[in-house]
Amino acid sequence: MLARNLIDLNQLSLEELDDITDMACRISRHPSHYSSACRDKLMATLFYEPSTRTQMSFQSAMLRLGGKIIGFDNPGATSVAKGESLKDTVIVLSGYTDILTIRHPVEGAAMAASLYSGVPVINAGDGGHLHPTQTLTDVVTLRNVAGRTDRLVIGMCGDLANGRTVHSLCKCMARYGGNSFVFISSETLAMPAYIKEYLTGCGCQYSEVRTIEEAMPYLDVLYMTRIQRERFTDPDEYEAQKGVYVLDSKKMRLGKPDLCVLHPLPRVDEIAYEVDDDPRAYYFRQTLYGMYGRMALIIRLTSEHGHCVPEKPAADPDFICANPKCITKVEPYLPRLSLETPKGKVCAYCEHHS
Ligand code: CP
Question: What's the pLDDT score for residue 238?
């Protein structure tokens, strides 16, 4: 049974994920067959943080399914500006609609929203934590362009510390057999320890290098990411990190003939425009697969048969999350909730330790 919310893609079994990606592939071939799949449904898009692809692809997806949309992408023009809490906004909007999509700058916000929503909640990105529908996009893309989701050597380059897309993608691809990772970053922007521990726990191999050139010949997939200026508290630190990794035609010559270059976009300067014409550059096609993946997800979550009551973590009044970027720090009424993991207790909202 599919979980009622989609906060983390790992809530889905591989079978459920494959069902959704199968459906996305069918929709991409015959979109008109699905043009009334959500005819009487209304979706709210709550975007507390800027977005082009995620917001517009969700909206396009719902409209192409025959549904309707409401929402905001400027919380300053809503009662959030008067101090309305996430809880109150979610209760109200979930009363109006059939499904909520939320992007928020604070880690764990989507999970917090799901506690108060009467309708399914989709995490459209929560701070530097997770971005499950980008990962769905990536999986649908890999199935179509690489022809498989297993036995891949996946390079990830750029801001691996703050990049929620790479965190979600690692956790997902570790579930398919034979995948391994090469992390290409500066020491400052290295993959967080909790993701590396997760991979080790799955028996998944990874290595860390400092240059694109040394990884390139071995990669089946190169996943480029932007240095995320908005996640830096120190502007000088951002200045020191920006522009370090740039994929250009010279570096592409070191890659395999069937390499897939992906990027969640937006790009700043990490992929030179000359690479766009290389047949191995799939990042614009990736955005289209994202819309089909979201269409499939909306159909599943709004269908009666897809519903089930989500398991809520047990209350843990003594647990205090140590992550200063956790939603519990800005929405103080939230109950303290923890999850037991092989590495001990973690925050149920943002997955950090106490
Ligand atoms: N990939 C992605 O999340 O893009 P947006 O920030 O434009 O939605």
Answer: 74
Pocket test for ligand 1, best of 57, 58, 101, 134 (most atoms within 8 A of CB): 134
pLDDT at 353: 86
Query: Which of the two residues, 240 and 109, has the higher pLDDT score?
Result: 109
Sequence-ordered list of residues with C-beta below 8 angstroms from that of 91, at least 6 positions apart, any chain: 116, 117, 118
Q: Residue 307's pLDDT band (boundaries 50, 70, 90)?
A: very low
- Pocket lining: 290 vs ligand 1, CB cutoff 6 Å: no
Residue 257 sits in a domain whose CATH number is 3.40.50.1370
Residue 316 falls within a domain, yes or no?
no
Say what the pTM is. Answer: 0.93
Collect contacts of 229-233 with beta carbons under 8 A, ≥24 apart. Answer: 230/105, 231/127, 231/128, 231/159, 231/162, 232/162
287 pocket-lining for ligand 1 (C-beta < 6 Å): no
Indicate if ligand 1 lies below 6 Å from the C-beta of 45.
no
Tell me how far the alpha carbon of residue 314 is from its chain's centroid: 25
**Separation of CA 120 and ligand 1 centre (Å):** 21
The answer as to whether 31 is a domain residue is no
Alpha-carbon torsion angle 231, 142, 59, 89, nearest 10:
-40
- 25-28, Cβ contacts within 8 angstroms, sequence gap of 24 or more: 25/140, 25/143, 25/144, 25/292, 27/292, 27/295, 27/296, 28/144, 28/288, 28/289, 28/292
Residue 127 Rama label (left phi>0; alpha psi -120 to 50; beta): left
Q: Is the pLDDT of residue 1 over 50?
A: no
46 inside domain: no
Measuring from atom 4 of ligand 1, which residue has the nearest CA?
A: 53
Tell me the per-residue pLDDT of 247-259, one tens digit each, with 9 for 90 and over: 999 999 999 999 9
Give the range of the structural domain holding residue 267, as residue numbers without chain letter: 132-287
Mean pLDDT of the chain: 93
Residue 226 lies in a domain: yes
